[in-house]
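note to self: dont lose this again. the chain is below, predicted strucutre after it. 151 aa total, dont forget to put it in the shared folder this time
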Amino acid sequence: MNKEEQVIMGFRDLLNKMVLLNKFKMEDSLKGYKPSEVHCIEYIGRNVDSNVVKLAESFYMTTGAISKLTKKLIKKGTIESYRKPDNKKEIYFRLTDQGKVIYKIHEELHKEFQERDKSVFEQVTEEQFDSMLSFVEKYSRHLDAEIKKLG
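---
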């Protein structure tokens, strides 16, 4: 296996381990919510005037899939839709009080996971962080360009 393959396999392995370690705590703390629903709540909580198009672009999903997801979240009472007075056509989303509770639980879990992994990141130098971030940004831009080619 060459280094390129080792890096890709390493990322995949890291992600799978993180998912495994975080899964049980997430599922226990966020009963009744699928990961896609929680991440949608997180996005809406972090981004003012979220709409179907912005969510679809962020999650690399179709607008139809996002519409179904947001309808489920509206039905669960975690988000609500609204329109701006100057734009009656576009529908936006914001968190309800219940959605804010889910958002906060999710944020607290992320802090807990960061604390768990802190000992590893404390050993990383600024130069190593900069190098990793540079690689991730370059690879992400490349993948964005490939996605764009798909239309």
